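QUALITY CONTROL LOG
STEP: pairwise intake check
CHECKER ROLE: data steward
CRITERIA: each record must contain a sequence immediately followed by its structure tokens, with no blank fields

ENTRY 1 OF 2
RESULT FIELD BELOW
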Amino acid sequence: MKVVSWNVNGIRAVARKGALQEAITALSPDILFLQETKAREEQLSDDIRTMPGFTSYFNAHQEKGGYSGTAIFTKYKEPQEVSYGMGVPQYDTEGRTVVIRYDGLSVVNTYFPNGGQGPDRLAYKLEFYEHFLAYVESLRKDGPVVWGGDVNTAHEEIDLARPKENQENTGFLPEERAWLDEVVQMGWVDSFRHMHPHRDGAYTYWDMKTRARDRNVGWRIDYLFISPDLLPRLTQASIHSNLFGSDHCPISIDLSL
């Protein structure tokens, strides 16, 4: 099973550029997570909503257009269960989570909040983190879990090009990083870092305004985590920085199921 995750920064824009189909052709995902889709399902063309070979599930911000949003595309049979959110209304209205379940396996795509725009939004992000961790822990009681997406935080200094300059900036604040510490301490496996423990310069996001991608001045803020019972089945974890179309690049894992 190949799971691919990508913050597309607008699904309609990335499809219009041909980048979405290019990534699907290059990576051949069985399950595809998209974040920051910025569109309601009814706003999407048929070629996006009904891509051949996939069944799709979309979650959009309930009040604000052109913002947030997530989607899962799957090649597998219809899931036994699909849910949109964590069951916490103040966090579920922003269309940040889609969950599908197959025979006890939970697959969770989430676009985590950005902590910018002031202390209130940082508090919202940290509260979202705690509710999310409790949520995936509850799923883990019923079987293996794959979760990921744009977490909007770099964990360690190796995960961004300029750690010292960003220690007081959201995305690398001690309290944000502490949550990722907690995630790992609870047994969740950061698939890429597990497979590539010392690889530096491996980033998934670059600021477009400063053309940071040209210089690889980036951040690794996109993750695919697995529950420890799936670790023996993890065969590959990759960052696909050669695929363009967004300010993020796709990431993937392969599991032998």
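ENTRY 2 OF 2
RESULT FIELD BELOW
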Amino acid sequence: MGAIREHEPVLPILALFSRYEPAIEWGIATAASAWGEVLLRSEPFAFDDTEYYAGTMGTGLRKVLVAFERLFDPAELPERKHRANAWESSYAEAHPHDAPRPLNLDPGYLTLAKFVLATTKDRQHRLYIGQGIFAECTLYYHRGAWRDWPWTYPDYRRDEYHAFFEEARAKYRELRNSQDRA
């Protein structure tokens, strides 16, 4: 029988997309106030691999990936998804735009082996983790590189996303090592 043990803390990641730059900045600031300082932030990526969000968010969407400095227990992922959804609603109510959903926030986490996203949508490859939330292993790390699954969203397959996750993985390793020495 294997020994049961707690999971080591993971690196918080937030994917934000919108066509409104102030919405993205608001989302980053709001998350940082709750989840700790920004450790790493990507440049904005064009988010044009799908038209799924056009009806609620419009076109010309940009996505930013952010890693936060304060590691967390991955069991908290459902709560983080609920918070992110509440922040989306809060922003939409306080900042009217043309689109009914001006901001999308997708929390997840990174380990040395994988990148996991939280979602409210069930599919055959997603696991229920409680509170109405599912988890998807979106990318995995193998033989020195980030790899896709058949279900990986098209944007997460891009080299520039993998470069962000490679840098985030290195920073995560540094954080873990510094905590081990403390």
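INTAKE CHECK: passed for both entries
DESCRIPTIVE NOTE, ENTRY 2: The CA atoms of residues 41 and 66 lie 4 Å apart.
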